[in-house]
Design brief:
Strand order of the largest sheet: 2-3-4-5-12-9-8-7
Structural class: mainly beta
Low-confidence stretches: none
Strand content: 35-45%
Mean pLDDT: 87
Distance between the termini: 47 Å
CATH topology: Beta-galactosidase, Chain A, domain 5
Largest sheet: 8 strands, antiparallel
CATH architecture: Distorted Sandwich
Number of strands: 12
Length: about 190
């Protein structure tokens, strides 16, 4: 295997830990990101009430979507809102949002899942699209004989399907168990 090649068809990208399938990001129709592309921070705010960074990931998904932007906002409550806006998707394309964790998930197939690790808790709420539910994907077991195991891990994920206009918004609010006066309270408790 050529592990050091960076071409799009390199063996390197068949390794789980090297591809977007093994990271906290999006996968469109289960495809790889563009290997030679880079994401760029295009806007940010350091205002304490709503600090954010806006990342343009469009080049990573060239040929899969026209525009892919991720905004990550940190609130004073210590909550994090991750918002993905995609345009120019093919109607019917499946977009997977995923996060690898060592936390143990509670009830799945609902818009809110609570991850536990010891005494720590983290609640993940799918804000958009409505009607989506969480599932887990095994990341502990190697996918191929050349992959290394990732003991104690799993991916919490959900999928959304692009509508006819090709525009899709995915938003997840992460709330630590210690948060008070949460953004989730303002969004309404949709369980």
């Amino acid at each position: 295997m050529n592990l050091w090649g960076h071409a799009q068809d390199s063996d390197r990208w068949t390794i789980f830990r090297q591809s977007n399938h093994g990271h906290n990001t999006l996968a469109i129709d289960d495809q790889l990101q563009r290997a030679a592309a880079r994401a760029e921070i295009v806007d940010f705010s350091d205002r304490p009430a709503e600090a954010y960074s806006l990342l343009d990931m469009s080049k990573l998904y060239e040929g899969q979507a026209k525009s892919v932007r991720r905004r990550v906002t940190l609130f004073p409550s210590r909550e994090v809102l991750i918002e993905d806006r995609l345009t120019g998707l093919k109607a019917g394309s499946r977009v997977r949002w995923g996060m690898i964790t060592t936390g143990t998930p509670g009830k799945l197939d609902a818009p809110v899942v609570e991850l536990r690790q010891g005494d720590a808790r983290l609640s993940l709420r799918i804000v958009a699209p409505t009607g989506s539910g969480w599932k887990t994907i095994d990341t502990a077991a190697p996918r191929h004989e050349w992959d290394s195991p990732n003991p104690g891990t799993r991916m919490v994920a959900f999928e959304a399907t692009a509508p006819e206009d090709g525009n899709l918004a995915l938003s997840v609010l992460a709330t630590p168990g210690s948060a008070t006066q949460t953004v989730a309270d303002r969004l309404g408790r949709r369980e």
